[in-house]
Amino acid sequence: MEVENIGEMKKIVVAVDESEESMYALSWCLNNVVSVSHQNSVSPTLVLLYVKPSPPANYSAFDVAGYLFGNDVVADLEDYSRKLVDSVMSKAQEVCMKSNIDIKVEKKVGSGDAKNVICGTVEKLGADMLVMGSHGYGFLKRTLLGSVSYDCAKRVKCPMVVVKHPRNVL
Amino acid sequence: MEVENIGEMKKIVVAVDESEESMYALSWCLNNVVSVSHQNSVSPTLVLLYVKPSPPANYSAFDVAGYLFGNDVVADLEDYSRKLVDSVMSKAQEVCMKSNIDIKVEKKVGSGDAKNVICGTVEKLGADMLVMGSHGYGFLKRTLLGSVSYDCAKRVKCPMVVVKHPRNVL
Question: Could you tell me which InterPro entries the record lists for this protein (chains A, B) (predicted)?
Answer without folding.
Answer: Rossmann-like_a/b/a_fold, Universal_stress_UspA, UspA
